[in-house]
Amino acid sequence: MKRGVLISVSLLLGALGLGMSLPTSANAATTIPKSMQGTWFYFSGDEDPGLTRVVLKDKTYDIAFGTFSHGKFVKKWNNKQPLKLANQLTVNKTFTTSKQGKKLILKTKMADWGLITYTYSMKKGHLYQHWEKYDGGFKNAYSSATFKYSKLAHPDKYLSDVYKKGLDPRV
Amino acid sequence: MTRLHKQLLRAGLALVTLASVGLAGTTANAATKLGNSVPKSLWGTWYELNSQSGIMRVKLTAKTYSISKGFFIKGKWTPNWNGGKTYRLGKKVRDQKTFTISAKNNKKGYRTITARHNSYSYVKSQYKRMTSRYSKQIVLDHREMTYTNKRRPTVGDAYPSELAQYANPAKHFYDEFGIGSLK
């Protein structure tokens, strides 16, 4: 926790930013790169125990926070169906993509968060995620830190080992 | 402060925290006297945006503490974690029932609240009322460390965050960031 950075942005800057982001949307509907596809986990160690899980397939995206029950992932935040790739954002239903060099820019619009822009990149077999809450129509922006996601063979065992056996959570 | 600065600072804090936790873990219980009430300066309902799974809400009164995460959906607080749970001040920490508070502020002016949200970990949260580092508003400065039952921290990161009070929090988070929805 406490990894967020609050940035105040004037309405003018917000409008400029919106203008700048328009060209990238021309490349929309880029499918998820093969290297990023799969099921990824991030452990924050926050007082709300659990893992953030990102499931990327070529045309679907699923992000949620949850824990495990009998080996099965149970969503606590964002208990919804995976989003589908589309050219336009529909609340809780679709996401859009574009490329920025090797980075994947992914946008979602959920009933709780509103518009979020994620930047995903790969480095040494790990998926890195940065996200921004940034919408020209509102006064402020929120920028997260960069989170490192890993593929875990047994995520439920990993989580229980961190707490019960004192396993070092760093993957 | 740029994000790079923050990350560097955080890396530094993580090292310091990891180095000091070993000591604190063993001596804290014996050295810390417990308080009979939450100081008035910390009372209130405080909010902060610091997690992907939602807004954090902390409620403190003289004898109670509740912490949850969620969103304002159609103007109503809709928690996805720990909603509706209110812990009472006690002399022992009981899972989801009672919390303890240190009798005095530490050298940096923080009170420590210890609570358990489950049977396999406990949380030490430090709170201090102060003027924000970034704005002129009054905030509740907050540092949190989660420990396993073996007193091992789950992460080496205790970077401070700031919670604030809002007359209409649902409207605040919608108007400022476009988060959640109003009635």
Summarize the structure.
Chain A is mainly β and 171 residues long. Chain A has helices at 11-21, 155-165, and strands at 5-8, 38-42, 51-56, 60-69, 72-77, 83-85, 94-100, 103-110, 114-123, 126-133, 140-149.
Count the domains of chain A: 1
| Beta strand count of chain A | 11
**Shape assignment of chain A:** globular
CATH topology of chain A: Lipocalin
**Topology as H/E string of chain A?**
EHEEEEEEEEEEH
Task: Work out the number of β strands of chain B.
Answer: 10
How much of the sequence lies in strands of chain B comes to 35-45%
The termini of chain A sit apart by 18 Å
- Major sheet of chain A: 11 strands, mixed
Oligomer: heterodimer
Radius of gyration of chain B: 17 Å
Helix content of chain B: 10-25%
* Overall 3D form of chain B: globular
Q: Any idea what the radius of gyration of chain A is?
A: 17 Å
Total count of helical runs of at least 4 residues of chain B: 2
Considering residues with a beta carbon less than 8 A from a beta carbon on another chain, report the largest interface and each chain's count.
Answer: A-B, 41 and 48 residues
Described by strand count, sense and barrel closure, the largest sheet of chain B is:
10 strands, mixed
